[in-house]
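Exercise 3.2. Students should predict the tertiary structure of the chain below and write it as structure tokens, then compare their answer with the key that follows.

Predict this chain's 3D structure.
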Amino acid sequence: MKKIITIAMATLLACSSIFAGGASETKEAKVENQQLIIYTNSGSEGRAEWITELAKENGFDIAIVEAGGSEIANRLIAEKNNGQADLVFGLNNIEYEKLKKDNLLMKYRPTWADNFDVDSVGDPDGYYYPIVVQPLVTIINKDYADAPTDYLDLIDPKYNQMYNIFNLAGGTGKTIFASILVRYQDENGELGISDEGWEVVKQFIQNSHILVDGEDYIGNVIDGSRPMSELWGSGVIQNQNERDVEFKIMSPEIGVPYVVEQVAIVSSTDSPELAKEFASWFGSTEVQSQWSAQFGTIPADPVALESVTDDIKAFMNKIHPQKMNWSLIAENIDAWTEKAELEFVL
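Answer key:
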């Protein structure tokens, strides 16, 4: 029997019938037709159209509702008592932890979950599962002889103004900042962090150069004027290819934070079995290998990772994920960044 998953391709603006006055009408149509509505922040640059076509070729008739990650999370929370979405993919652990705390996600286990240790980059409780990883690293000029091996090394005065960090308002800077703080968890400390932890991140921030819009910070790394910078994984690959250069990658023994795009099932879905079937198909090794080949993503699935380009393989062989307490981060990240911006940023 053909699997039917009908989702109207639309932006949030065009989906006012879902997000506003037409909610009850949409809900009735879903029940009658076994429709699944999928929210994502990862449908741009042709992704939504591409996965729609591939799904159709495999017996699914799909389309996707797109918006930014925070907007999707806020929308799901607002719809708690009248849920419209059946699945959501593309958000990171911090957003999913907020949804999990509000009981908006359904516990499940996709067929591909046994392919790897999903706990290291996903949810140990089984409410969301990793599909694409985006390691956050510090790149280093290949000729820089005195390279640090850990973020804690960077607080040494000899590295003053030698490394670039991103503003804490952005995802990369915020997540690397949080990855340092969670090493110093203390239930009796301020905002769950020990005094030592706060002193370390203070020195880390004040020893750094905070990126200013318009700076060619990659060029600064290459010419050695500021030989180190934070960067996300796909940015490493892109800049190495475009600028014909190879960077050293700082690889702390504890690992580096991975921003991970996850897939989850919304707890209010009318079609839980169908939603599970779609999640198992979408996150499968085969589909994620094709997804990577088409869009240059880094699959979370190590079997899919074997089929990626050699430069992605080389990059991923240099690093491993840091285990992060995402519940603690989701609960405190806003307060942590506010404290840092008020007290540490000069």
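Discussion points: Confidence is low (pLDDT under 50) at residues 1-27. The domain at 10-133+260-310 is CATH 3.40.190.10 (D-Maltodextrin-Binding Protein; domain 2).
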